[in-house]
Amino acid sequence: MLAPVDPDLQAFLAADDPGAAADALGRVLAGGLLTLINQVVSRELGRSPRMAGAIDDVVADVRLKLVERLQAWRSGEDDPIDNLPAYARTLSLHAAYAVLRREFPERTRLRNRIRYVLTHHPDLELAPGVDDAPVCRVRGPRRMSAAGSTRGWMDDPVAAADRAGLTPALPLPRLILGILERCDAPLPLDALVEIVSRLAGIAD
């Protein structure tokens, strides 16, 4: 078994008494994991007012799955978790994305296509931003763009695309590259998805 760094996690895994194990598990969750889960789910679902009411339910579901996984680790029914915060973050993302796929199928498919382009196109990249929220940008030197051009794309994508001569009929890689080349700052992934969604007329 891997030796966990967190002493509360060690106490949970080593406890012989169910009450002591429950107390230690409560301390593990209160040590920041529940805050992390809530932050991740709120960030992913909070973009849509329609999803705000689902956040608490998704957080509760992730908490239950995490507890079940930790109990399986403790009983020897499942493998150790190498990095507990990273595991909780991944679990939270998967749960949030499952809700988004169900409620916003077209937008979710577009988001996945955009992520694929950003991670496979030689001139584009998806980089970490503030609070781990990814940002999209052009690799290497960029053309000089007017100050405030990024805000213009976010405020009125249709007008910005008209000025740039870009249309949603373009192949997605060319459209994304054209947008990012005309931004004066990296564009958050959520903002790029919103821009392309509005250009493509995706309403869900």
Provide a short characterization of the protein structure.
The chain is mainly alpha-helical. The protein is built from 9 helices and 3 strands; from the N terminus they run αααααββαααβα.
Detail the topology: elements first, then pairings.
Layout: H1 7-14, H2 18-45, H3 55-75, H4 84-103, H5 105-120, E1 124-127, E2 135-138, H6 149-155, H7 157-164, H8 172-181, E3 187-188, H9 189-200
Antiparallel strand pairs: 1-2, 2-3
Helix pairs in contact: 1-2, 2-3, 2-4, 3-4, 4-5, 5-9, 6-7
Could you explain the architecture of this structure?
- With 204 residues, the protein is mainly alpha-helical.
- The protein contains nine helices and three strands.
- A three-stranded antiparallel beta sheet has the order 1-2-3.
- The termini are far apart.
Protein traits:
204 residues, mainly alpha, 3-stranded antiparallel sheet, 5% strand
Distance between the termini: 46 Å
Listing every helix as H and every strand as E from the N terminus to the C terminus, the arrangement reads: HHHHHEEHHHEH
Helix content: 55-70%
Structure annotation, total helices = 9
Class by alpha and beta content: mainly alpha
The main sheet comes to: 3 strands, antiparallel
* Low-pLDDT segments: none
DSSP strand count? 3
Percent of residues in beta strands: under 5%
Give the spatial strand order of the biggest sheet.
1-2-3
- What is the gyration radius calculated from CA atoms? 21 Å
Q: How confident is the prediction overall: mean pLDDT?
A: 88
From the spread of the alpha carbons, the general shape counts as elongated
